[in-house]
């Protein structure tokens, strides 16, 4: 029997949910509002009504080339996601379908690399990048972002793959599919929802990654995170410009997230209910 | 072709020995059923033949060719799984065509074979559906279709009917038997259900703890079980066993009598007991009778044998129908 829910309860819960959602969304909203203010307005104090000027956007674009950063962000996030999937699909496949006694340990070890603060390896990584001439290069940063997100990607795919009955893969093996045939014709199509949401999440993570992207780049390979940073450090008091830069940086991923939210939610809850 | 020979096949998972060493000959065209309680190694044995598991030692030969190290697809076998293992993202047509596509056959030939298989299995109207849109029985037929298009030298069935309801199971049992008569291909069928084993098999292999207890035709096993395990496993309801003073007159350590080989009387007989639960099936009645010194004894009587709970009855084993066993549980003949 369905649980009876009174109208009053529904209203209260709905209002509460809206309040929580607004609190979470507010920083982003206020950034967007501030970006449409003039610099004087921005420092005057709290106000939700901007004058609507777009002078900050003009100033930001004039000061640095937004599209170059945007393009770098796209290349880095898509490139690192592609690379991560290329490595993690076979890795997750082998761990999900032919696990050994050490599989669980390997998974934990992978995750443990995410528990260490990134700054702890800053110096060695920086030196490696310097010596291999990878500083401020898209290739170097793509590899770096791949490595950072690889544990999460493998973990997610591993969980999705575990949901796929092993008998189906065995059937494919009996039917004459080679190892790659099995992965390509059977496993991947069945895991599409999982792979898609992993991909989306990885793109978002890579897009927003700020620690390494800022430290290992200067101009050539700098993505939008570095673009925002370039406004915050020397000109920390120019709130309107900083807000405009931030809005420009988060807009693409926000739009992508909006359109793929169904896929994302489905992916994140995949397998929770059979 | 379709001779399969196992020579000293052994399988261990780590330190656990699942199959200690099996020798078995399966002849061309035979319907062989591996039967045994769960965990007896019957599925493992099938998977060893399929190549989905590697043998720890011993050899497997198909048509005289050593395939012990050969990949599953190269053994010329087709398998039907318990869960059907259909490809959910492909239509029925593509499911059936998949092994042929993997073999890189000519598309026109694939189409012809798929159409033919669909006709044989009554799937013609469902070719463009996804497995998710089919009933359990139809899904199982698709799985069988996927197996027959390959024209394998042998079919392997791993408990294919256990996900179906009782009525459908009966129908599919007939269909598979019928298919065997049509194709005349070797079939190896794994089940824990001795009724399936008895009704379908040419040859039954009874397994227990990884060992073959007995190999024989269904009636062979029924009439002449080699040991207590086979005697108790084959036949439904189960054989009744008795020891001590009950087996002494027969010069045996223990004796076994099937429920259908006990004569009942309300007047006199060899064993005296009190009627417990009576299961009326209409054609037959199964009486569960408490006999002092044995415990619960099952007897099959005619549908209209009138006794009720608590009545006293007498049981007499039929002459020549008593199975005798020595202290190791082996049959005395």
Number of domains of chain A: 1
CATH architectural group of the largest domain in chain B: 3-Layer(aba) Sandwich
Encode the helix/strand succession of chain B as letters. EEEHEEEHHHEHEHEEHHEEEEEEEEE
State the domain count of chain B.
2
**SS-based structural class of chain B?**
alpha+beta
Secondary-structure content class of chain A: mainly alpha
What's the alpha carbon Rg of chain B, rounded to whole Å? 23 Å
Percent of residues in β-strands of chain A: under 5%
Largest sheet of chain B: 6 strands, mixed
What percent of residues of chain B adopt helix (DSSP H or I)? 25-40%
- Annotated CATH topology of chain A: MetI-like fold
Average pLDDT confidence of chain A is: 85
Distance between the termini of chain A: 21 Å
- Give the radius of gyration of chain A: 23 Å
| Unreliable sequence segments of chain A | none
The H-level CATH homologous superfamily of chain A, spelled out, is: MetI-like
Strand content of chain B: 25-35%
List the total number of helices of chain A. Answer: 14
- Helix content percent band of chain A: over 70%
């Amino acid at each position: 029997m369905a649980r009876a829910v009174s109208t009053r309860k529904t209203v209260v819960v709905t209002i509460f949910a809206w309040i929580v959602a607004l609190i979470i969304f507010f920083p982003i909203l206020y950034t967007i509002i501030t970006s449409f203010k003039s610099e004087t307005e921005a420092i005057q104090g709290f106000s939700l009504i901007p004058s609507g000027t777009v002078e900050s956007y003009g100033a930001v674009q004039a000061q640095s080339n937004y599209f170059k950063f945007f393009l770098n962000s796209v290349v880095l996030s898509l490139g690192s996601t592609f690379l991560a999937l290329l490595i993690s699909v076979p890795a997750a496949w082998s761990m999900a379908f032919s696990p050994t006694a050490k599989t669980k340990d390997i998974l934990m070890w992978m995750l443990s690399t995410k528990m260490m603060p990134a700054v702890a390896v800053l110096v060695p990584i920086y030196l490696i990048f310097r010596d291999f001439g990878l500083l401020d290069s898209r290739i170097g940063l793509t590899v770096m972002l791949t490595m950072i997100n690889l544990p999460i990607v493998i973990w997610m795919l591993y969980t999705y793959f575990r949901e796929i009955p092993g008998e189906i893969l065995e059937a494919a093996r009996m039917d004459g599919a080679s190892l790659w045939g099995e992965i390509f014709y059977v496993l991947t199509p069945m895991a599409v929802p999982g792979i898609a949401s992993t991909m989306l999440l990885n793109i978002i993570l890579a897009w927003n990654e700020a620690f390494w992207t800022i430290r290992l780049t200067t101009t050539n390979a700098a993505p939008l995170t570095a673009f925002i940073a370039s406004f915050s450090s020397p000109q920390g008091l120019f709130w309107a410009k900083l807000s405009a830069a931030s809005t420009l940086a988060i807009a693409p991923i926000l739009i992508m997230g909006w359109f793929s939210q169904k896929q994302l939610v489905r992916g994140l809850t995949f397998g929770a209910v059979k | 072709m379709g001779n399969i020979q196992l020579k000293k096949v052994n399988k261990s998972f780590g330190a656990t020995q699942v199959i200690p060493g099996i020798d078995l000959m399966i002849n061309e065209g035979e319907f062989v059923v591996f039967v045994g309680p769960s965990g007896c190694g019957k599925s493992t044995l099938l998977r060893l033949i399929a190549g989905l598991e590697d043998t720890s030692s011993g050899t497997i030969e198909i048509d005289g060719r050593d395939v012990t190290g050969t990949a599953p697809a190269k053994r010329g076998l087709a398998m039907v799984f318990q869960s059907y293992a259909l490809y959910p993202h492909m239509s029925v047509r593509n499911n059936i065509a998949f092994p042929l596509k993997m073999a890189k056959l000519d598309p026109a030939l694939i189409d012809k074979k798929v159409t033919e298989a669909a006709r044989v299995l009554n799937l013609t109207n469902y070719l463009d559906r996804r497995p998710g849109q089919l009933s359990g029985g139809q899904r199982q037929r698709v799985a069988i279709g996927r197996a027959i298009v390959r024209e394998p030298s042998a079919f392997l069935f791993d408990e294919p009917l256990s996900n179906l309801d009782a009525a459908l199971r009966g129908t599919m049992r007939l269909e598979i038997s019928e298919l065997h008569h049509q194709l005349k291909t070797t079939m190896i069928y794994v089940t824990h259900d001795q009724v399936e084993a008895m009704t379908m098999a040419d040859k039954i292999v009874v397994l227990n703890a990884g060992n073959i207890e007995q190999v024989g035709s269904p009636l062979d096993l029924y009439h002449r079980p080699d040991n207590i395990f086979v005697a108790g496993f084959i036949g439904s309801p189960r054989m009744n066993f008795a020891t001590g003073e009950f087996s002494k007159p027969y010069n045996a350590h223990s004796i076994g009598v099937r429920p259908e080989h006990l004569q009942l009387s309300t007047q006199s007989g060899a064993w005296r007991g009190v009627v417990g639960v009576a299961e009326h099936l209409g054609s037959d009645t199964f009486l569960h009778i408490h006999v002092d010194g044995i415990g619960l004894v099952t007897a099959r009587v005619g549908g209209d044998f009138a006794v009720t709970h608590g009545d006293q009855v007498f049981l007499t084993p039929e002459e020549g129908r008593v199975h005798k066993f020595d202290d190791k549980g082996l049959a005395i003949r």
